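Q: Entry one of two.
A:
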Amino acid sequence: MKDTVFIEGLKVEAVIGVYDWEKEIKQILFFDLEMEHDNRVPAVNDDLSKTLDYEAISNFITAFCTNNVFELIETLAERLCAELMQVFEINAMSMALRKPGAVPTASAVGVKIYRQK
């Protein structure tokens, strides 16, 4: 099994959706990420600069969702995942993106993706 760094239940507001009314409001999205990373490297010297900094990644996700507008959560997930892998030098990751309230009879709907270089 590979080491991971994870972020669970990251709550972000975003303009997302295909309907005209959705393009006028911000909606809540939740992100769960698992990013492969050899955690032995930062552990040797207790060195933050050698980690996948989950605070920096969380802030990046929030900014990305604030600065971009998509109709589909599939598009958001794909583009965000590609950006995260490039900016933070992540070799492989999984992402679950949930959009609560999109289907009134479901607690949430969403997508799960896994990508690797």
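Q: Entry two of two.
A:
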Amino acid sequence: MNFWEKITGSDLTRDWKAFEARAEALPEDYRAAWEEIKAHLFPHGDFTGRNLTPIFDAALGLLEETA
């Protein structure tokens, strides 16, 4: 990640679009679980949410694995 991406957050936008695309491929009940995970984890993030990216990636990977 370069300085410009960190300042503008374009890397986060790219990551979130990838997360949402992966979540769309899940069955309906797993997508509902994904929405609940997001809702419960967001309050624990920092200003940008950058610290939660690895956690969301792991949680989505777990949902993909179980589906």
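A: Comment on entry two: The helical segments are 3-8, 10-24, 28-41, 53-66. The radius of gyration is 13 Å.
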